Fold this sequence. Notes:
Layout: E1 3-10, H1 20-31, E2 36-43, E3 50-57, H2 60-70, E4 88-93
Antiparallel strand pairs: 1-3, 1-4, 2-3
Amino acid sequence: MTVISVLELRLKPELVGSADDVLRDTLNDTRARPGCLGVEVAVDVDDPAHIVVVETWESLEADDDYRAWRASPDGASSLGSVIAAPPLLSRSLLRDDI
């Protein structure tokens, strides 16, 4: 079953203008992971330091594997250098039977 993962990021205010490269590199790696069906990024119109990343995964297992990879030294990214607080993650199963 398809999983939608929503990651809310709060960028360091002084890095809002320069965080794009870190985000791009991080999310390109995410997009390349097995089971990733897509990644979209939204920037809050009233607060450019508030970023919402919407990831679509083919299964909960694919998302779990990705999260485990990100927690490993091989999957570590530079994202921590541009965020002001730990990311907030929510995951939902996409239902097509309702």
